[in-house]
């Protein structure tokens, strides 16, 4: 009995990432949202998050494609924890394509306008414990 | 720069579990909280959560001792995701003691009274993806 609304939001957000429509992507985030760019590097707020996605797109030479595999959504009141097998395909437009597979943790919040938005975007899941914690 | 209040709450909650003071333990949970008893089995609300802890204590013959190792807290507005290496020691009062090591995910919420409370208690972390999702 999963929250279909959140599942569809994540699919639509992935689609925005894959199209590099970062303006549309920001609609999925809360104003207070935090994104784990990589273990040890966090960014906060829509402006910083959009810049991080632009840098990530550049880093992967505009070849990044994200999709979700198996997903588990734990909903409690206005909060939901999403655990998802996130697959990142990189370099599909070249011969050197490869994919990365992560067990991600996302936290969603149902805000005052009743829409669910991502408040914590941590695609590294529990891997964060493997590195020192520090914030940009 | 971790949220020390949440870290201390988790330590105090572990202490309540280890003393089997489940009345005190319930103070750490939101009214809407959900607990993953085991993958595929969720319980909701303080009454069900307390009963689950009583059953867990019974199951481990009142020998369960919980402590946290390395912890990472991602805070965003009134929401926080805790990723923690949770160590469960079982059977310390017998010769057959052993310990279980889990990378847990807990979600905390700062409620209207400004206190942080656990809203999603998932000590299994991303392991939830390994089993079918079903709710009691």
From TrEMBL, chains A, B:
Keyword Isomerase among UniProt keywords: yes
Tagged with keyword Transcription regulation: no
A single MF term (Gene Ontology): isomerase activity
InterPro entries: NTF2-like_dom_sf, SnoaL-like, Steroid_delta5-4_isomerase
Keywords assigned: Isomerase
Annotated Pfam families: SnoaL_3
Domain (SnoaL-like) ranges: 6-117
Protein's UniProt name: Ketosteroid isomerase-like protein
Organism of origin: Sporomusa ovata
């Amino acid at each position: 009995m999963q929250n279909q609304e959140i599942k569809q939001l994540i699919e639509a957000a992935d689609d925005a990432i894959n199209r590099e429509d970062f303006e549309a992507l920001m609609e999925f985030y809360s104003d207070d949202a935090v994104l784990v760019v990589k273990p040890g590097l966090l960014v906060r707020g829509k402006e910083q998050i959009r810049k991080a996605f632009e840098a990530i797109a550049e880093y992967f030479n505009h070849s990044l494609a994200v999709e979700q595999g198996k997903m588990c959504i734990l909903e409690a009141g206005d909060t939901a924890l999403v655990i998802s097998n996130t697959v990142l395909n990189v370099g599909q437009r070249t011969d050197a394509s490869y994919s990365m597979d992560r067990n991600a943790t996302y936290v969603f919040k149902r805000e005052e306008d009743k829409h669910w938005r991502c408040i914590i975007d941590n695609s590294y899941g529990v891997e964060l414990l493997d590195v020192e914690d520090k914030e940009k």
